[in-house]
Fold each of these.
Amino acid sequence: MSEEKFSNKAKAKVKILGEEYVIKGNESAEYISKLASFVDEHMQEIKEANSSIPRNRIMVLGAMNLADKLYKIQDAYKKLEKEYAKTRNNYEEVLAEYRGLKEKYQKVQEEYNQFLELVEKGELD
């Protein structure tokens, strides 16, 4: 790729498992560094728990663990979206019912007021 394609991209020098990388992306350098720190911490935890496995396996295990977390979060998000849609539908139904009852109440109130006027005029005898 040419340099022009990277000219608008942020660049950050980061360390993951002790190795330096230069990462370019659409987000800020600070954001890229935070992501790299998150990945590094995760990989370090795996390395500490499994000190005898090679670095490339640590990376694969780390990627699988992060992918697992991502899938679980996406699944939870989809469930929340469905729950929100259901709640929104219930709200719309209750709101429609409320509006209908409000209209009925106003009609009954009008009829009652008309009845009171007739009683006051003595026209119901």
Amino acid sequence: MLHLRLISPSDKTDDVVRLIEKTVGTTHLVVMEGAARNPVGDVVTCDVAREAGDELLTSLQELGLDRTGSIAVENIDLSLSLRADKAEAEAPGEGADAVLWEHLTDATHEESTLSVTYVAFLTLATMIAACGVVLDNAILIVGAMAVGPEFGPLAGISTAIVQRVPRLAWRSLIALLVGFAAAMVLTVGFSLFMDAVGLFTKEQLEADRPNTGFIYAPDWFSFVVAVLAGAAGTLSLTSAKSGALVGVAISVTTVPAAANAAVALIYGDAVQTLRSTEQLLLNLLGIILAGVLTLLTQKWLWARQRPRTRTP
């Protein structure tokens, strides 16, 4: 269930209440006249089944409530109410299959922001991966994959394409490109330092690496895994099952490929640098493609399977 807290201008409150009452899957409607001070208006709260939430939010925006008042949405972790159970039962479809498009756009917008924290996480992940490729240590590679925050901008690009939000697409693309560029440049400096103190050597990089050699050996399997991981990651975002994102993070070799390219660059190994870069781009493309196709499929299926959630 979702909890909606609305601030409505007094002249629109009746329309808002009628809209909520006509939406199948809503309950616990409360109206507090004149309770809001900034902006001035009435406070309206209600609970709505997740599968009816997107249409209700869209209708509230059509009333202009996002411009003249306020729309706030919260997830309800526990609701002990027979009315809530009945509302969820009446709402068409399954809550786990429903996509809240406004929430998805807002979440990916936040995750795709180019910030010091984002660059720091990506840089640290790339440095950890650099240690992993030199030592041929699979555990470090997995750790670096889990730390890397790059799925946020990738999901932002996919969402922006499907929802046709150019600003989100540019924001996500800038975060992705600048983030990886900064992380690789800093990892080059880190690798030079590690080489200077004798912890990194060219011989280690070019030795037989059975655990990490796949990082600079892009093939169709790399692309297939990236597509599968991108689909799983997108589903985890739309269904609010964020725990699955950890599995996605350790399924693709974006960060390790960037790290391998950075380390190979300082030793003048053009083959590993180019092939690692190819691996990086292949994985990024696969994740974005899978994200777009997954969102389009969800949008199409939900539109076909879900009837209108308004009562006559």
Amino acid sequence: MRAVSTDKGPLVIGIGNPWRGDDGIGHAVVDALADTPGLATAKSHGEPAELMELWQGHDPVILVDAIVTGAAPGTLHRLDAREPLPRGARYSSHGIGLAEAVELARSLGELPQHVIVHGIEPACLEDGASLSPEISVAIVRICENIRMELTGPRPDASR
């Protein structure tokens, strides 16, 4: 595995499609965090090549997306990508899944050392819908969690 430069600092990437209801969770979180000092943000549709280009040189990287597990809408999920992401959950409603994109980056040596996935269980993924009320509340909570994670001690690589 080649050494990856990490001089750009922390990055939050919001993944999804804001025109499909709660699939816009990631973009809404990025909008809420956009003015956070010392934090870079980006929006993506979740394609692997796009993600790898966006996170190049950043560490840690936080990915935010709708995650469908069957839990109650608004349920928060946090996954550490140092381990393979569970394949049972659906991490998005777009193209290749987020778990597959992370594993492809890992196999190519393009995965930053610290990648955390924050997700919110969606209520509605219909075309043209807006964010569900329970999702709007969860977005506030997930933004607080991300800010605390970025200001707290860095997790060690041994886990």
